[in-house]
Amino acid sequence: MPPTALIVGQSVMKAFQHLSTQDLHTRRVEEAYRVVAECITAVDPAMRLYMFGSTAVYGVHEKGSDVDFVALSKTDVEDGKGEDAGTQVAKGLQAEFLGKLAKVVRQKHFSWNVEEVRRTRVPVIRVKGGSSVDFDITVNRRNGVRNSALLRAYFEQDPPCRWLSMGVKRWSKRAGLNASVVGGSITSYGFNLMVVYYLLQRGALRFIQPDAIDVANVAPVPPYLPLEPPRNDGAELGEQILDFLAFYMHEFDAARHVISLSRPGITTKEQLNWTKNAEDLARMNGEKINYQWCIEDPYELNLNVGRNVTPLKRDFLRKHLEKARETALLTTT
Ligand code: ATP
Ligand code: MG
Ligand code: MG
Description:
The chain is an alpha/beta fold. Helix content is 44%, strand content 10%. A five-stranded mixed sheet has the order 1-2-5-4-3, sandwiched between helices. The chain has a three-stranded mixed sheet with strand order 7-6-8. Helix 7 (161-174) crosses helix 8 (188-201). Bound molecules: adenosine-5'-triphosphate and magnesium ion (MG) (2 copies).
């Protein structure tokens, strides 16, 4: 017999027990912010630094989590609803700035490992700061700040929902589904979009128009949002987890539908032209894009956040969704 909701909730709570003795305040990353901001200023004093990713989404910083930073110009911020340029020229300019920045970081912090990653969709530098936190730095891209602020605005509607998100993220990493581990295909960001989409479908959250999010109104360092223990001893969390799993196993129609926060209600693959034809066309252009498990990016035009989910990975995901019910999101083993 599969465990009850209460048992599932309590098991997941136990897996996060270590958080109760940790300082989760976002001030813990302010030191990293200051250090990165100093390096940015050395390259271009007019650039401003923004923090995004999980620290911004949850309003807490989990030990061991990397921190995502982006350097934005004054115009980027003022035009805070503007679209990010995806051209080769834009990418080239970003890589050039990051090259200079990497040099400064290496000079100021010679023991840190600084890697320039150019072959990704978005140029980025990865810094491993030894005992201090690790971080990614991008430049002139507002979308990360906007999508993090959007996810946060959803979690602010019902802050305990962060437990579902954190439970799913932890599970996705342990199950080998998360793109941050070998063999994984969906990033934490993708799983967060799945969590919020599920909550919207259930009417547990109110829809937010993505266009309402303006970088000009977002704090560069996200404010702390205290994480209270789950309600009624975890029973509600357990129910939510089981319902989330059931939703993606039995209700969500992956063959026809798209996980999307772009509009309320249902979005179909047909609507976005995310079809077999489009897969083939991309392949001819030398790109590997799958439309097997579709997650629409709320800001990036025509981007499937689940593009790396091949038919094999989709089956792997389904298997794990099934297994997750018995193992309380892999917290019992
Ligand atoms: P973690 O704690 O695992 O680092 P996170 O909440 O910081 O989780 P990430 O997956 O690291 O989430 O995503 C950080 C940012 O990177 C997102 O806000 C988004 O802008 C970008 N991103 C991540 N995955 C994708 C993707 N598949 N497609 C497009 N952008 C992505
Ligand atoms: Mg991150
Ligand atoms: Mg990151």
